[in-house]
Amino acid sequence: MATLQTDFTLPLRSFALELALDVSRTVALVGPSGAGKTSVLRAIAGLVEPSRGRVVLDGERWLDTERRVSLPPERRRVGLVFQDYALFPHLSVRGNVAFGSRGRPVDELLERFRIRHLAATQPAELSGGERQRVALARALAREPAVLLLDEPLAALDAHTKSEVRHELAELLRELALPTLLVTHDYEDAAALADEVGVLVEGRLRQLGPPAELVARPRDAFVASFTGANLLRGKARRGEGALTAIRLESGEDLYSADEAEGDVGVVVYPWEVSVARAHAPDSDSALNVVRGEVGSLVEVANRVRVRVGPVTAEVTAASAERLALAEGGVAYATFKATGTRLVPL
Amino acid sequence: MFAAAAIALGFLLLPIVAIFARVSPGKLVAQLSHPVVTDALVLSLKTSAIAQALVVLVGTPAAYVLATRRFPGRSLAVVLVELPLVLPPAVAGIGLIAAFGRLGLLGATLDAFGVRLGLTQAAVVIAVAYVSSPFYVRQAVAAFEAVDPNLVAASRTLGAGPARTFFRVVLPLARRGLAAGEALSFARGLGEFGATIMFAGSLQGATQTLPLAIYAAFDVQPDGFTTALAMSALLVVVSGALLVALRITLQWQPSKPTSRFLFAPSR
């Protein structure tokens, strides 16, 4: 499989984007808006010029500032799918898809993306999901060696999104192209990519398989971005092998991780149990946070419950059995081994 | 409010209505055979066509650069391009003489190449192009600025170079704006009077365009006012017809390229 090697510096308005990244399968860059995610794609596609660095695809030099090489976008074999899809409004669906196909027939692509019946339609008349399929087909008609996707799911409504996410994951597997996608949504990244990089203010904070980011977040930002609870406190050596963390609220938490000083206690919602009452003698979980039930949000067959400062994820059945209601008191409990400590 | 609108509309339309009220259609057609009129009409159409071709050919790329490139002095350039808009025609005429006239800045250079502009159609073309081009260029800049830069970027990543991108994406998307600008420029050019009469003179068959012929007829001939009225009516009809034709041609959408695939064998 081909590998796209990138290593460049791109000055942006308020910071410089510095990235060194090899892409051979699907890599997702996640980060808050303004982190420079789109600029990464534009730099690889040749739409903006880094001040320093290289972009090389298997020996094909697209950019090498030392050798003064910088191919124009049309000579870099990229398929870039824009966030708003950037379909040509004056061309039909077929006209859009055929734009970069250099005369090759596109019927097969139209068929594959289930847009053949829309061939004569103008982009303005398409739904969000259809636009996305047209944009993908158009990018692939150019026969790219690298696929770049800018927020591929952001323009879709929640209902369409889960379906399209599934389809897209399947498509990326089939294509087996080096793919770099950027998104602000960690769940999308984890669902689509083999490796996820967290980009903050132009720097890569952590890069790894989604499971690793969750298991070992390197810092507080990565932890909270991947969906974890982050509780701030001061760590000191506790009893046995455990570290005790005194929270700002005065409560003590325990973690199997070692740390000292200001730390963030990281715990994922699915590690947290919720109870209406707490019996310390009959619970192996050392950590207990008592709080008011803040909000109940249903996500698929689960319910996200906010208990004081902690978000827990329980099954819809459990939520019903506990008769949780906003404003009531509940206990969030989790094991010391279910926590990670990150420096603040 | 409605009264004010009615007054404004009446004020704007009355002179045009008056022209046609004084000239019967028969008289209008009869005037077409008069050599002064035919000469002026032919000259007007010919010089306008050449001037507008030049305006579009040079103005389009210039406007595209102004709209899409960021360079030092860009805003100054945009202002300078629009300068002839606010220049009184007489000042434009004097300026053209001072620049291209026999004793002007470039006069000696042009002379060396054997070019004498005085009393020629080329002088008319220059005067018309000078006063009318800003109308096209400023509108074209706005039209190009309105094209989503992401569409241009998409075209490039799809393998189209700058030229192909310009003709297949930018131009079709900016076309309506360009048509509107060209219509204005054309209308202004066809009615051009002040700069032309100063720079090119008013010689029947050589530099006398319709507006100049109207003025000459009105001024000189014993039955001049009627002839001037007839020519005015003619000018209104011609420019109106050309404007409509131009709008239709430039705004015409090519039939969808998909149609030719309709009967292609399926794969």
Number of helices of chain B: 12
CATH-scheme architecture of the domain at 45-206 in chain B: Orthogonal Bundle
Give the termini separation of chain B: 65 Å
Structural class of chain A: alpha+beta
Q: How many beta-strand segments of chain A? A: 21
Name the chain pair with the biggest interface and residue counts per chain.
A-B, 32 and 22 residues
> Helical element count of chain A?
9
Kindly report the name of the CATH homologous superfamily of the domain at 45-206 in chain B: MetI-like
Element-by-element helix/strand order of chain A: EEEHEEEEHHHEHEHEEHHEEEEEEEEHEE
Return the CATH topology of the domain at 45-206 in chain B. MetI-like fold
Please name the CATH topology of the largest domain in chain A: Rossmann fold
**CATH architecture label of the largest domain in chain A:** 3-Layer(aba) Sandwich
Overall outline of chain A: globular
Q: How many structural domains can be distinguished in the coordinates of chain A?
A: 2
Can you give the mean pLDDT of chain B? 86
What's the CATH class label of the largest domain in chain A? Alpha Beta
CATH homolog superfamily of the largest domain in chain A: P-loop containing nucleotide triphosphate hydrolases
Main beta sheet of chain B: none
Oligomer: heterodimer
Count all strands of chain B and give the number.
0
